[in-house]
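[09:14] KT: can someone run the structure on this one? pasting the chain below
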Amino acid sequence: MEHITLLLAIVIVTALVFDFTNGFHDTANAMATTISTGAMKPKAAVAMSAVLNLVGAFLSVEVAKTISSGLVREDGIQPEVIFAALVGAILWNLLTWLVGLPSSSSHALMGGLIGATIASIGVSGVNGGVVVTKVLIPAVAAPLVAGIAAFLAARLTYKLGKNVGEQSSAKGYKAGQIASAGLVSLAHGTNDAQKTMGIITLALVAGGALAPGSNPPVWVIVSAGLAIALGTYLGGWRIIRTMGKGLTDLQPQQGFAAQTSAAAVILASSNLGFSLSTTHSCSGAVMGSGLGRKGGVVRWSTATRMFVAWGLTLPAAGLVAAGAEFVARQGGWGIAAVAVFLVASCLAIWVISRRQVVDHNNVNEADAPAAAASADAGVPADTEPAGVVTTAIAAVTPPPTGVSGTATATATATAEAGEDAEPSIPAQAGAAADSTRPAGATV
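[09:31] RB: done, structure tokens below
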């Protein structure tokens, strides 16, 4: 093994802690839809995902090369910079996990690395072309490509299975979900475990333990694979709940379409060396498949919060990393102070998370605060409140046959108020189904 100094050892341990948080933060990418549709039991799902993440870590090192020798200049980086970058990434991972938002661990790491590098040696230390072509463009393209592919795949699955019994179709697609979830887990290990391999390799190069341009040593590959597998097995249940139930309600056909599309995008990017966000790909696929079913809806309030988190990931992790780098460069006491701050912050976030525990026992239940807010507003927990778009559509939609304009106006006003009031005039038999539909439900 290469000569490892105390500082390098601290950086390596911190990198493996990040890899661990990456594992439980991103478990939802592979297993949320499988768990939400009942294709697998929660504990069995995360166990399978953990094993396949470990296997995937050994399949390629292309993404590791992008991180270790492409994103920033190796010659100007010190181990303190890597340490600060990891601090920013870990804290962002834990904060977004606490609130159940599926943000990108990959972008947290890269944002931390960019922020710490700029604080250390300036903007010249960052390879701008690599950031644009292998980070920013894939960040925008991945959810769009995966979403469109999942939308088309979901439409195709329903079209092909229209003459098949619902029970038989669901059973078949649940089996397909298990296979596609395994593929996503394998792809996740191939892509995400390599990011930690790349960051450890960069630290070894910065500390003089490896020559510039070296591939990750075998012990780095093994340790990174084990760390992400362990984190995956513990399960990021808060984010699994959001991905499985918060964005949309999925049937087995949609879950299969979402996972297959996401896996294809992730594996293709890994072979090309793109440091792709598996979170962006899987979230885009879930939303695309949600819209792919006739009558399916996406809860855009949850999606909007997720998009905001995506936009904040790079700058937020970068700012924290820049501050950590400023303190760490002061010497031994600075590194110790940053380490204490990191440990204390992690403990504080964990203590806060214990106030409302989410685990494999309640991961498929509705989020209590969200359900309470919906109940207070008079809206069922599984629907979005009627908004501007819904109201506008209701205003221009012709009334069903046999229902007067007055009855339609009354029903629209009732929907806006979120109340189940009796209509002012009796509804005709042909409108009975419409009168029982929850306010704000999408047709």
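[09:33] KT: thanks! The chain has two domains: 6-365, 379-435.
[09:34] RB: yep, looked fine to me
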